[in-house]
Structures are given as C-alpha cells and as structure tokens.
Amino acid sequence: MKILITISGDNVAPRFDMVSELLIASYNPQGLTGKPRTILMAGPSPEELCSLILKEDINIVICGGIEERHYKYLAWKKVEVFDSVIGPFNEVLDLAMKNKLRAGTILLSARNVRNN
Amino acid sequence: MVSSLRPPKQYQSEIFQIRKGAPEVMVPDTWQKTNNVLCALRLYARPKVYCTIETMPISSSILVEPESITEILNGVPLGIILLDRSLCVLRMNRFFEALTGYSEEDSLGIPGNFIVRSDLHSKGQIFRQILESGESRVQEGTIINCHRKKLPILFTISPLHDSQGQIAGLIIVLEDLSSLQRAERNAGGADGMGKILGHSPKMQEVFELIPVLARTDASLLITGETGTGKDMIAEVIHQTSKRARQPFIKINCGALPEALLESELFGHVRGAFTGAVTDKPGMFRLAQDGTIFLTEIGDLPLSLQVKLLTVLDDREFYPVGGSKKVKVNVRVIAATHRSLREQVRERLFREDLFYRLNVLRIHLPPLREREGDIRLLLDYFLRDFVSQLGSHIKGFSKSCLELLLAYGFSGNVRELRNIVEYAVNICPGEQITPEHLPKYLFAPESHQKSVVPGQPASVLSREEQPHQTTNKTETHSSGNWNETEREMILDAMKKTGGNRTKAAELLGWGRTTLWRKLKAL
To answer: In this complex, do B123 and A116 lie within 8 Å of one another by their Cβ atoms?
Structure first.
C-alpha cells in the first residue's frame, strides 16, 4: 500500500490545492517498507498533484481541505482520501498504517502548538 | 467590571462600553444605532478603524466572560475567529462554524490556519506578519470548508491589544462573497431572477411568487422534477428574505443513513453513541436565525419525520442523547421531486408533516413546459462555457438548434447545461453542429419531445397541484414515462458498460438521481 500525505512543516498541510511538499510512504502489515520519500513540487497545482497521485499508484491520500471536484476525481480513480486531517504527519502516518485514521481526524498533539 | 473600547482618533469623543452580564453594546447615535453590535464589531475589525480594549488584558477581561463575548460574536452576521498570541484558536462565532464546518469545541487550541484553511498564506505567515507589524489587513481570498466547498471570502484581519497596548492576538472576520460574486456575474444577464433564467409565462409566475414567499417565515415546499432548479429557488428565496445575512444550510435527506441524518440535523451530545467524542451542534442549530433547506424530503425516514414535525410545531428539540431542549428560530424550506400526496397515501410520509410543510408551495415547471426558455438557456450556457473555456464558438448551427429545440430534456435544465458543456468541449470550430452533441440525443425515438409544447408531460407536477384530478390519460402517460425513463437508463448503462458515473453524465443527471432511479426500477 502506498500513502501520500500533503505536508506543511511537520504537519498535514491545511489545503490540498496550496501544497508543494508531499510525503510518500509504502507499507505492508509488518510496517514501513523503506524510508518515506519527500517530494517538493515546482509550485502548488491540484491538477498536477492529482496526476502525480495516479502516476505513483497511490492508494491512500491524507490531506487537509480539498475541493469536492478533486476529491471526487480521486475517489473515481479508486484512491481513498482522508481529508480534513489535522496533526503532525508522522503520527497521522502511524494511524493510517494501523487503519485507525478517519477523515476529519484532529490529533490532540495539534493543539496548542505554534504553527511556524 | 466594565471594559471600555476606545475608538480610533476620528471617533475619540464617542466611547461605548460592554457591561458584565449585559451584552448590549451602547453606541452613540452617529454610529448607526439600529445595528449597534454589528457596527461596533465591524469598526473593531476594520483596518485603520480599530479600537483598543482599554481597561484590562484581553485574556482577563472580555474573554473571562465567555457568555457575553459569545453572544456578541453570534450577533454579528459574519464569520469571526479570535486567535491568541501563538495564533491558536481562542473563540469563534456560529457564523464561522457554519462557514467552515468546524465547531468551537473541536478547534480550541488548534493553529488558526488549519481551521481557516485560506489561500492567503502558507504556514500562517500572514497572521504572523500582522501580529508582528500590528497593521490590519483586508484581503480577498478563498477557504475550503469541511463540506469540500471552496468559498470566496473577504478577510479582515486585525490585531487585538491588551491593557498595555501590546498585541494579544488576532481577530479575523470572514465575509462570504459567494452571493455578491453571483450577483455580479448575473448583472446584465438574461431575463430572470438572480441566477435563475426564464421568460416563459410559467417561470414569470414563479418569479412573481418569490418575493411573496421571501416575506414570510412560513414553511415552504418546493416541488418539481429533477434538474428544474429547486435548490436555486430555495437559495434565492433565502437571499431575498430578511434572513439573507444569516446562514443558509442545505441538507440532503436522501444522502445519509437514518442514524447519521438525525445527528446531522439535530446534533448530538458527547457519548450519545460510539464515536460521539464531542458535542455536535447539528444543522438546525447552525442555521439559527437563518434558513434550513431540506432537499429530497420525500426520502426522510418516518422516525425523523416525527422529530421534524415537533421542531416545526414547537421550534425546539432534543439533540441525540441530550436531556436539554434546544430552542431554534429557523425557517424550513423543503424540496422533493416525489409526489408527497402519493407517499402519504402509501403511508411512506406522515400526513401531518405534509400539511405542516405544505403551508406554502411553489411548483417548478419542467423545461419542456417552459416555452421559449430552451433557446434562452442554450444561449446563456453557451456564453458561459465559451468564456470559461476561452473557446471561439459563436453559436449553434440551424440544424443543431432544431434538434435541441425538439428534444424532451427529461433531465431539465441540468441536462441542457451538460449538453452545452459537452458540445463546447467537443466542438473545435466556431459553430456547434449536431455532430458535436452527445450521441444519445440521436438514439431512441422515445427521447424526443413527444408532447405538444405547453401541454404538461409530467404527472408528478399535476398531481401536486391542488384541486387537480388524475384522469386515465395522465395515468397512461405516467406509465409511458416510467417506461421511457427505464429504457433511457438501460440504454445509458449499456453504452457506458455499467459505469454509473458515466451513465449519469450521459443522461445529464446527477449520480444520486441515477442511483435513486435505479433503485426504483
């Protein structure tokens, strides 16, 4: 399984269409299969991001706010999208691998942290 | 305890106060006392026209009186969020909750940029800049809310000061520009009301009714076939009513399972069921002082019909798992493509709720009964898509127009719009010809208009009219139509290899409409 997380600093990025940094991780039931990769896009472009997701054969996308049309497009392409997720991406990745992540999850560790 | 707000230089002589336990803001007459709370907070939020909280630090004065500040914030018909010095959420009003879909309880302590989700910045840089510079800023941008909707917003971001004049946080005011932008787009457009177009006598009747329906708070039932614009009419009625500046919340009663729908509508308290980890306000509470639009009301489960009836009668309800009644002041607009009378006869819909919703009713005519509107809409959508896609198309060929004007448009305006969008995308030249139209338009004869213009083809609409009797001919035409629809669906499914999304596109229907009709087959 391959997961893509849109990131901003140490957190899941607030918006799918404004993101230029991505984390891609592959895993199996035993855990991560290799070191997660970070990709820097030339600039924010939801269309390019969608095509990258398909090109990379991503199974799960984890992001913050996403427009309905991009969400539907990815769902149509059989990509599972967990949107409106707030929290540090490493914890989010951990939850996703344990199949405990849901859309709209707000992690406690996201609270009262400085956002810079 | 008295906290005074000092206005900027030009208003130095006019001081108003907020008293503990008395949320009313006293404003001099010159400050438009008719809407004093709004006026005060607007001034407070505007750049260069902000006031400082004078007597004590923000954290210990206004914010220790959460009830007062909540009431004040909720009195302003704009989304407001307060951030502390570390740019985390301190407080928000219910308009902000309605705009973004986040509740205050869920958001407390979260960095503001994760909740606002604007395109103004990355990593909250604009918030930090304002915090450092102390200069307010007004900027247009967008947000993406929890319902995955992108909204154009006017942001007014201003610093909050403590008693020492130090910046203690930020106040961000969000004004939804959607309706304004729509109005601008429609200015100088074709005949009609707002974004609803039509100059046929039947649509003129509808337009004449809208101001009448907007003046009252009575429940309203909108009927009409799929694609006739029930949602748009509901929104226009809300926008032209006195509740226009309050939230307009739409919920599809057919889209969610019963248990989830109850929680969505009426909210729940923490621990009401597994997974209910926080209180949820529910759509009725989010629509406080505004309008709630229940679309596909015919699909509302019977158990929830009872609860809805109670809300309509008593204007209060219990949230799921709650023991405290919640009072609401909400106008209910419902819509359905079904014959509610028929459903009442079949005991699928409560008669008392039907009559309670049916206080006022507006029926939207299908496109085939709107003489002359097809051409108007074809031209409108052509212009719209041509400008959106930067195409050089100038119009339709004569044969293409003849074909489209003779077509039945079972999916009504939605289908017509999709056909034009398809043609504009496919056509490489300057004129749309029949070969640029979707192929299904040429296929079975049953798709073609089989009724004389002006003669009703929809039995649903007639059944819904009061004092209308159903005769044998109408029943017969209903059978034919169902059969035709069935054939259309089967045909589309065959053509798309069973792909429902593509089949829905081909038919010019929404996916849920196709799903519903498939279920009924």
So the answer is: yes
Q: How far is CA A110 from the centre of its chain?
A: 16
Task: Please state the domain extents for chain B.
Answer: 2-176, 193-364, 372-452, 480-521
Residue A100 forms part of a structural domain: no
| Total of domains in chain A | 1
Top-level class of domain B2-176: alpha beta
In the predicted model, what is the mean pLDDT of residues B508-519?
82
Which residue range forms the structural domain that includes residue A42?
A: 2-87
> Which of the listed CATH numbers 3.30.160, 1.10.10, 1.20.140, 1.25.40 matches domain B480-521?
1.10.10
With a cut of 70, which residues of chain A have pLDDT below it?
112-116
CATH of the domain at A67: 3.30.420.130
| Cβ-based neighbours of B104, under 8 Å, separated by 6 or more | B89, B91, B92, B97
Residues on chain A touching B119 (C-beta within 8 angstroms) = 15, 17-18
Inform me whether the C-beta atom of residue A100 falls under 8 Å from chain B C-beta atoms.
no
Q: State the pTM of this model.
A: 0.51
A75 inside 8 A of chain B by CB:
no
Q: What pLDDT was estimated at residue B334? A: 94
Dihedral angle sign, alpha carbons of residues B82, B84, B85, B88: negative
pLDDT of residue B162: 80
Classify the complex by whether its ipTM is higher than 0.90, answering yes or no.
yes
Mean pLDDT for B482-499 is 81
- A with B: how many residue pairs have Cβ under 8 Å apart? 71
Domain B193-364 adopts which CATH fold?
Rossmann fold (3.40.50)
Q: HSE-up of A3 (CA within 13 Å, CB side)?
A: 27
Residue B460's nearest CA partner among B340, B293, B303, B292 is B340
Residues B495/B498/B500/B503 CA torsion (nearest 10 deg): 10
Indicate the fold that domain B372-452 takes in CATH: Helicase, Ruva Protein; domain 3 (1.10.8)
Please check whether residue B148 touches A, CB under 8 A. yes
Q: What is the pLDDT of residues B268-322, one digit of tens each?
A: 888 888 878 888 888 998 888 899 999 999 888 888 898 889 888 888 899 988 8
Contact between residue B247 and residue B290 where contact means Cβ atoms under 8 Å apart: yes
pLDDT tens figures, B145-182: 999 999 999 999 999 888 778 888 899 999 988 877 76
Chain B partners of A105 at a C-beta cutoff of 8 Å?
Answer: none
